[in-house]
Structure formats: C-alpha cells, structure tokens
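Working notes for the structural subgroup meeting. M.R. asked for a predicted model of this chain before we commit to crystallization trials. I am recording the input and output together here so anyone reviewing the notebook later can reproduce the run.

Input as submitted:
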Amino acid sequence: MFSNIGWSEMVILLVAALVILGPERLPGAVRWTTRSLRQVRDYASGATQQLQQELGPEFEELRKPLADLNELRQMSPRSMVTKHLLSGDDSLLRNLESAVPDRKDLLGTASGMPDYPMPKLEKPLDRNERPPIDTDAT
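Returned structure, recorded in token form:
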C-alpha cells in the first residue's frame, strides 16, 4: 500500500504529525490509524471471500479472463511475438538484432529522421505575416 513512500517521506510525515498533533496525542492517532487500516483490509478480504463463496466456481471463471487481460497489458510487441508465434524462443529475434545495423547508422540520427539543414529566416515574422512559400517543396 505504501510502496511509493520512502523513508524520507515517512520522517517528514512523522515530524508534521508531531507538530500538528503534539507529543501527547500522536500515539493515540497512530493507534487509531493502524486500527482503521487493519479494519479496511479485513473488510476488503472479507468481501472477496464472501464473493468467492457466493459465486463458487464461476468466480474463477471471472478471474481467469481478467488475469489474461492483465498479462496482455504488460506485454510488449516483442514478447507477444515471442510467446505466440515463436513458442517462447526469442533466439531468432536476437539473431536478427545482431545482423541488422543500428538505426542511427542507416538513417543518420537516433530519432530515425535524416539530418536536413533547417531553413533560416532573416527576421522573425510579424503578427499576421505569412511565412515564405518554398515552391520547390510544394
């Protein structure tokens, strides 16, 4: 639940709570917070168990497509091709990567766009002024 909070943030929260609540009320607030979080977690797990009991085997039938969808969301195009077309063997793709030169060598830049000189304007355009038209480009 708090996986994104580091130790420095926890110290800042503790100091802020100490300043706001004071040293006499801080232990009670910490107990109340932990008790509330535990109760919410118990309610959530109880609801899941109750749903699983009421639905029975249909619960697993609902969970499997959701798990498959989650797995597909986490896959990259390369891993999809490897899993479904190459049966998990990615040696063919690794051989292709080593055989093909880097895109920068082929196209001139890492972005894939060739390096063309940019036209220079003499002065910035005024308001409502039209840019010059390059008849060779149109």
